Amino acid sequence: MKSREKNRSAAGNSDVALVNVLSQQKLRRHRLPWYYAPSFLLLWVALFYAVVYPLYHRLPDSVLISHESSKPGQFVAERAQRLLYKYDRIGPKVVGSVANEVTTVAFLEEEVENIRAAMRSDLYELELDVQHPSGAYMHWQMVNMYQGVTNVVIKISSRSSNSSSYLLVNSHFDSKPSSPGSGDDGTMVVVMLEVLRQVAISDTPFEHPIVFLFNGAEENPLEASHGFITQHKWAENCKALINLEVAGSGGRDLLFQSGPNNPWLIKYYYQNAKHPFATTMAEEIFQSGILPSDTDFRIFRDYGQLPGLDMAQISNGYVYHTIFDNVQAVPIDSLQSSGENALSLVRAFADAPEMRNPEDHSEGHAVFFDYLGLFFVYYTETTGIVLNCCIAVASLVLVVCSLLRMGRESDVSMGRVSIWFAIILGLHVLGMILSLGLPLLMAVLFDAGDRSMTYFSNNWLVIGLFIVPAIIGQILPLTLYYTLKPNDEISHPNHIHMSLHAHCVLLSLIAIILTAISLRTPYLCMMSLLFYGGAVLINLLSTLHDRDYWVLLVQVLQLVPFLYFCYLFYTFLLVFFPMLGRFGHGTNPDLLIALICAVGTFFALGFVAPLINIFRWPKLALLGLGVVTFIFSMIAVSEVGFPYRAKTSVMRIHFLHVRRIFYEYDGSVSLSDSGYYFDFQDRRLYYPLENTSVNLTDLASTSSECDEYLMCGVPCFNHRWCKTRTKSHWLPREQEVAIPGATSLKLLGKAVLDSGKVARFEFEISGPPHMSLYIQPLDGVEVEDWSFIRNMLDEPDTYSPPYQIFFAYGSDNSPLKFHIDFAKSSGDFSTPTFQLGFAASFVSYDYDRDAAGLKFISDFPDFAHVMEWPTLYERYIF
Q: Which residues belong to any copy of the Peptidase M28 domain (predicted)?
């Protein structure tokens, strides 16, 4: 009896083994040889380099002066380049410097007069106005005051038109210290001059006057544009804006902000931009505030309610705000590209009927994007909502139809098919989590090992560090499932089909959710679903759905979204790579790059990566991808992964030569010293400098002095510096810093007001073009009023002491007089009431650095770019 039971058991086990063997054999018959898998993956890489890369970097041929007679009315890049050489030779153009307030203004006036001489004076009238506005507004957490900054404003109008609606075209001519600013924003200055010239010599008059604003205080920040839009005589007539910026040097200009509302602006961009380059996703990212940048567009929008377009060249951001932002870094073909776009848009807006009453056309936002620079797509936000929801629902319906077809073909109930699909969908969700998690884990591990930003100079490292792990995560759960638990009740091709359906369902849900929270970015999901749903529909309507080669149609149609997603996320990477050099050290930048790579991989390869399972031994492909990641990781921790390179991708070093004098209430000096105040710009802090000739032996964090001294004992320059003051560093120096100019802070008077509990302190300050005040009431004291704008006082939940007042001037160096009223419940103003910090920054090279400072600067290695200036910091107690 026992013997028979043993025989039956052995026979049963033998049958199970035989079934498993047959299943494996059947499975292998449906799979391609394993050695095709690397070719399959490399095919998509090759498509990127063969199609996306050249189209992304494509620029138009420049028009030379010698071509002008045969190409009338076209933008002439050679003339613009000649102007850029003149602009570049002026050197850095810091607000308040002779270079900015005198030399550059004279350059602009001369070129405008040259244009006037060539103008069709019978058709056009040209007016030139040099404005020197003074004012103030809130810039993040500081009062931003300006006095006598410079705007060079030109208005050109047709004599035959009486329109009072003006088009505003803006760029800025000032620059950061040490940078000639030939990219930011000299490129757009000369583009505007050539556009003005082409408009002025045209035989075809236009309807609406055009105001060309060359503003001289954008880097300060954004002061001259505020002065124009709130004070200039032509400002209230401006109805639309074209803002031209540069966040690097060269390349195409990206439309990254539009509106607000006014989708007609995008319509005109669609109809007239010669080289479209735009995405709604960039607009939503920029307006989220995660980028360490801002433009004049915000000022015109917030203070002038001007709708418009904000465009910027974004290539080679490594030279942005450095000495290497010079004319040699600006390709002439990029001038042609930006010039052709600007000229065609200016001509179109100058004749747009919507300009008369833009508020009548301000219905909602627009969804927009270009496809590989070949054509432009736009539609209203309402249309986008309808498209997203309809295509998502239609895709879900097609998935259900496909699953029903699979069940009928395999003679399996819909219930069982649904269970299998639910399992695959769950595994796909797990794969999505892993595709995000593994790159982020790599980012955390490299940062923990002090190896962040290894891709900063060698961008290709992100392929192995983040993109390949994202692919591994995406396909790992399904690959293990198909390998370890084969299911012969339904064919392997149908299993693969289910995995693609799972991605379709996931994209549909994401599209619906993101659309519900009023984002416009779900157009990415819509695009992918449109082409996948189209492939499924064709397969269902034909016999392809039931054949093994249904996958061919799916992949052919997926080429369209794949190329677009590669193009889009390549754009984001090229923007963010150099930006991380000034992203600050409080956040791990690798997390951001890993996230971009992971999301880009999810969209670009979501319908591609699961197909690795059509090959035999897919685990071998996973192993190969793991080896790729390991090899790239080893390269990244070698010298190849050192982030910085001389001249091309430098380390940004910002520091001030500071002379500190802290006075007590009785007038005695409690602290008098000198040192270097560092605001390190990226994650690696000062560590790359440790084995160089620069001596940082006594460098210490300022955090320990924040409880003892006002503003942590450092003269933080503007809001960004002040925001990171607790994480800044101080390096003492033996020699006293020589302050290269006169400064003064005078207490003009102190008077107790009628209530007896409020005292007014009146002051006067004078000094260099950049000064700051820091106001800290002592315990039991509040600021009741002051002569500055009251935003900080009226919004105590938003702003708190110490208050920063940033003051800059251009051509008007008159002393600043102000008063502050303090309320004290005791009414006793014979005791200390408040601390007042006064910082005088000698930013421009009109002021000399002392010998010790110059020696210190020269000690920095060639891979470091230094931006510095002397500063006097005095602290008083009144």
A: 151-345
Contact 573, 593 (CB under 8 A): yes
In angstroms, the CA 619 to CA 634 distance is: 23
In a domain, 312, yes or no: yes
Mean pLDDT of 107-134: 98
- For residue 352, give both structure tokens: 């747009």
From CA 595, how far away is CA 444, in angstroms rounded? 12
- How many folded domains does the chain comprise? 3
What are the DSSP calls for 669-710, one per residue?
A: EEEEEEEEEE---STTTTGGGTTSSS--TT-EEGGGGTTTSG
Cα–Cα distance for residue pair 587/683, rounded to 1 Å:
7
| Domain-embedded: residue 370 | no
Check residue 19 and give its pLDDT.
41
Mean pLDDT of 47-63: 97
CA-based end-to-end distance of the chain: 107
What residues pair up with 872 in beta bridges, in sequence order?
Answer: 659, 840
Alpha-carbon distance 245 to 253, whole Å?
A: 8
Of 184-188, 395-399, 702-706, 754-758, the least confident = 754-758
Structure tokens belonging to residue 554: 């799916």
Stated pTM of the model:
0.93
Taking the C-alpha atoms of residue 606 and residue 836, their distance in angstroms, rounded to an integer, is: 58
Q: How many CA atoms lie within 13 A of 98 on its CB side?
A: 4
pLDDT exceeds 90 at position 294 = no
Statement to judge: residues 597 and 730 lie in one domain:
no
Residues 6 or more apart whose CB falls under 8 angstroms from that of 199 comprise 124, 156, 206, 210, 343, 346, 347, 350
Paired strand residues for 242: 169, 309
Round to whole Å and give the CA distance between 36 and 624. 13
Give a yes or no: residue 3 inside a domain: no
Q: Is the pLDDT of residue 1 over 60?
A: no
8 Å CB contact between 356 and 82: no
Instruction: Tell whether 713 and 586 lie within a shared domain.
Output: no
In angstroms, the CA 445 to CA 267 distance is: 46
- Measured in whole angstroms, the distance separating CA 777 from the mean position of its chain's CA atoms is 37
**Whole-number Å distance between alpha carbons of 325 and 316:** 10
CB atoms within 10 A of CB 339: 29
DSSP secondary structure letters along 240-299: EEEEEEESSSSSPEEEEEEESS-THHHHHHHHH-SS--BBHHHHHHHHHT-SS---HHHH
**Counting every residue, how long is the chain?**
878
Residue 456 half-sphere exposure, CB side, CA atoms within 13 Å? 30
- Pair (406, 311) in one structural domain: no
SS (H, E, C) 167-188: EEEEEECCCCCCCCCHHHHHHH
Q: Quote the CA–CA distance of 570 and 56 in Å, as a whole number.
A: 9
Q: How confident is the model at residue 23 (pLDDT cuts 50, 70, 90)?
A: very low
pLDDT tens for each residue of 850-868: 999 999 999 999 999 999 9
The domain in which residue 48 lies consists of 32-54+382-641
Running DSSP on this structure, what letter comes out for residue 848? P
Q: Are 252 and 370 in contact (CB under 8 A)?
A: no
State whether 664 and 764 are in the same domain.
yes
Nearest C-alpha neighbor of 497 from the set 611, 573, 397, 404 = 611
Domain contains 224 = yes
- Cβ–Cβ < 8 Å for 268, 345: yes
Q: Which of 213, 93, 95, 179 lies closest to 145, judged by CA?
A: 95
462 vs 636: CA distance, rounded Å: 10
466-483 pLDDT tens trace: 999 999 999 999 999 988
For residues 727 and 586, is the Cβ–Cβ distance under 8 A?
yes
CB 744 within 8 A of CB 815: yes
